[in-house]
Specification:
alpha/beta; Beta-carbonic Anhydrase, Chain A; 2 domains; eight-stranded mixed β-sheet
Length: about 375
């Protein structure tokens, strides 16, 4: 391994009062990166004595009896990420405390280059209790994810401990000339999709929405403005609770709703605003099973007034589709196509700044299936 100046940090738990410490835990952790400039983390959802939260954290864990630190980090990365790595250097040691469980953590951090990925070997607790998954992020997106998740007590402890380590790792890679790692990220549609997929997995599992919804996040978004990670055009059906379906909260999604998720002029204008002014990297058109607007269009029944105009638009969208499922997909495809006819949307796609996708939500199972994009 290379020899680099190492950081030494001593942190206190500022979230829970100190009473006593009854054990020390030696822990190994790693900042893992690949040749394409991505960093790898684990995402966990936990609902225990630390609270209900979704978290980002470096991969790692406790040192087992008989292991040295390098053996331990190699094993941990293989288990949690399925990664075979090259140990580049030691980043340093961070000492911190979890007062709630009376524990002192001695975290040994390494910088590791991923050589290849294979099968993970997660424990049942990691799968069932923590819903552990892998996050593959650009540096800027990783920093933003830590900052975003620092809205819960445990999230703040993790951000305080790991952001200095991540920044030091980034500086080391700059010094080493690893240019791919510090080039500007081309966009974060991949992160947006990962967040949507992970959030829907939580929703399907029956987990409570972990989004932070108290005064702190309301004040933050009121003072700093909104920075949604995606725009969603969806049906107004009350059985499609979008923020819950994707396990998100205040300021995370820019949602446009109407009956039948049609691309009306007002819906298109709202999407253009999200793209041009809020710079969302992803737009999702979300249809759903059991859509009343689609059923009305299939029935051939004529509705009066503005409702009749909307049903006529859906009828034009579904064309010759015969079954409800065929019609719901055709309606979705028509809305996505109409969206892509916008000059504003096309330009953002051509510049690599935007991804457009279409998905269907099953109101019975809670599952979102991506059909387009």
């Amino acid at each position: 391994m290379l020899k680099r100046p190492e950081i030494r940090l001593g942190l206190r738990d500022t979230e829970w009062p100190f009473t006593y410490t009854d054990h020390d835990r030696q822990i190994v952790r790693a900042i893992v990166y690949d040749a394409d400039g991505y960093f790898y983390f684990v995402r966990a959802h936990r609902n225990d004595e630390f609270g209900n939260a979704t978290l980002i954290e470096t991969s790692g864990g406790g040192v087992e009896p008989g292991e040295d630190l390098q053996q331990a980090i190699t094993r941990e990365l293989g288990e949690e990420l399925g990664a075979e790595v090259e140990l580049v250097c030691s980043i340093g040691v961070v000492s911190d405390y979890y007062n709630l469980i009376h524990r002192h953590n001695i975290n040994h951090y390494y910088l590791c280059r991923a050589k290849r990925f294979g099968q993970k070997h997660l424990t049942q607790d990691e799968i069932e209790d923590f819903h552990l998954s892998t996050l593959r992020l650009r540096y800027e997106d990783a920093v933003r994810e830590y900052e975003h998740r620092a809205c819960t007590p445990l999230g703040r402890l993790l951000a305080n401990r790991e952001l200095p380590v991540l920044r030091r790792a980034h500086a080391i890679l700059r010094e080493m000339g690893e240019h791919a790692v510090f080039e500007a990220a081309p966009g974060s549609a991949e992160l947006s999709l990962e967040k949507l997929l992970h959030g829907n997995e939580l929703y399907k599992s029956g987990a409570q929405n972990p989004a932070y919804l108290d005064e702190r996040i309301r004040m933050k978004t009121a003072e700093e403005g909104q920075t949604p990670f995606a725009a969603v055009v969806c049906c107004a059906d009350s059985r499609v609770p979008v923020e819950h379906v994707f396990s998100v909260g205040v300021g995370e999604l820019f949602v446009i709703r109407n009956a039948g998720n049609v691309m009306s002029r007002s819906a298109l204008a709202s999407v253009e605003y999200a793209v041009a002014h809020l710079h969302v990297p992803m737009v999702l058109v979300l249809g759903h099973r059991g859509c009343g607007a689609v059923a009305a269009a299939l029935s051939g029944h004529e509705e009066p007034g503005a409702l009749g105009e909307l049903v006529a638009q859906v009828r034009a969208n579904i064309g010759t589709a015969k079954t409800a499922e065929e019609a719901e997909l055709a309606n979705l495809q028509s809305s996505v196509a109409a969206l892509q006819e916008s000059a504003c949307i096309r330009q953002a796609i051509e510049k690599g700044e935007l991804t457009v996708a279409g998905a269907i939500y099953d109101i019975a199972s809670g599952e979102v299936s991506f059909e387009i994009g």
